[in-house]
Amino acid sequence: MAFPLPTAEDDQLIQKLRELPEDYWDFKADDTHEYTHGLHNYPAMMVSPISRNLIRITSSIRPVHSLFDPFSGSGTVLVEGMLAGIPTVCGNDINPLALLLCRVKTTPLDPIHLRKVCSALLDQIHTLYQRDESFFSGADHYMREVLGLDLTAKDNWGSDAPSYLKEYCLSCRRADFEIPSFKNIGYWFKPNVILSLQLIKNCILEISDEPIRNFVFVAFSESIRLVSNRRNGEFKMFRMPPKKVAAFSPSVIGEFSKILSRNIEKMGNFYAACRNTSRVTIHRDNATELKSIPDDMFDLVITSPPYGDSRTTVAYGEYSRLSLQWLGLGHLTEKEILGIDRSLMGGKKYRKGFASHLHSPTLQNSLEQISAIDLERAGDVYSFYEDLDASIRAVSEKTKAGGYQFWVVGNRTVKKVLLQTDVIISELASLYHLQHVYTIDRNIPNKVMPSLNSPTNEAGAKVTTMTNEHIVVLRKI
């Protein structure tokens, strides 16, 4: 496809970007957790100053009345759109936990009323816990000493925790206490932790104000991760070693209270800074189709798609699993929760080869190199880029003519072959009325990513993961 020459707006944009210092986009000293950005951790979050500056620079060149992020994640772009006062802000994600975070982060709550409700909640939790403290604190001792269970084992306590807890409740004459039940709950939580979390959940459910209830559930979700037996700093489901599990004794109510108090302060700052003039809509569409979103709607797209398929790159589903099981978000079955990563980009398996139809010579060259080493792994890579190509097409359909798109991507390595996603996107986009304008390179000193990974899945074979990102700038022609 023959593209026209750059427009005057393109020239202005390129000039503004080139005038910036080389390390401008690193944001080493910026507070990336201010406002509601810091309510909840999430894998591979785009740091907020990126979208803030992209909105500012684009708005200085052409009016921005509508903003879209098709891979919203925890809602960073949406929050920045509201802070900038963009009239129409739209997000999309397929993960129910991401959707909850987006809704909560973009719903300004009056801090006075919020503090009042949350103070009453914490008082209720502490009162109920103290009234029956021996019931909560004695659960671990009962399992170990009376029932003889190993609380670090995967079997027995690990696999059948609900039945043991019901027996414990009967022995304490607390048969009325609801016991949560999902796969391997005992493997991920100790007895007193489960009972304390359920107490907190029961109290949260009594909050009648839905936006505040959702806000508090975000603090609850963050607490779940921190009081579980999962290893710190991991997005995938890896448990602490047995010795650490045995010694682990988190203060569940204390952790929840601390997170809730922090989040109330951040919401107060957001409430004060937000212009509250934006109309925010959040969708749960497959990003390869975006069926519920009108065409030709958005002046500006800012997004950061996954770096690769969730099963081998950033496991959004695994990270979200315990929160989804405790909160029941999206009314998913246990099977659907366990299969979230397979439903995300690159979920389709090509075990016996594939016929590439994607318009990217750079991708084709990489696929040929990987196929020569591992055909099935090449199929995983192709599956991801097949979905990415469909997403680029769908997002183009939603963008107004002349509208700019900013795709924040990282270039990963598979089987020691570098996948130049920034170049691949610019090549794929050319089929969908999108012209490559510019590419910004940035270091990622403060993005939460593992520093090492195994590109060959061989034990001990580790390489450094990506330490920089690329912001691909496209314009709808």
Computed over alpha carbons, the radius of gyration is 24 Å
Q: Unreliable runs, pLDDT <50, ≥5 residues?
A: 449-464
Which sequence of SSEs, written as H and E, runs from N to C?
HHEHEHHHHHHHHHHEEHHHHHEEEHEEEE
DSSP summary, beta strand count:
11
In percent, how helical is the residue content?
A: 40-55%
Question: What structural class should be given to the helix and strand makeup?
Answer: alpha/beta
Cα(first) to Cα(last) distance is 12 Å
CATH second-level architecture of the largest domain: 3-Layer(aba) Sandwich
* Overall form: globular
CATH fold node name of the largest domain: Rossmann fold
Let me know the average pLDDT: 92
Percentage of residues in strands: 5-15%
| CATH class descriptor name of the largest domain | Alpha Beta
Total count of domains: 2
State the CATH superfamily name of the largest domain. Answer: Vaccinia Virus protein VP39
Q: Helix count? A: 19
Largest sheet: 7 strands, mixed
Give the strand order of the largest sheet, numbering strands 1, 2, ... along the chain. Answer: 3-2-1-4-5-11-8
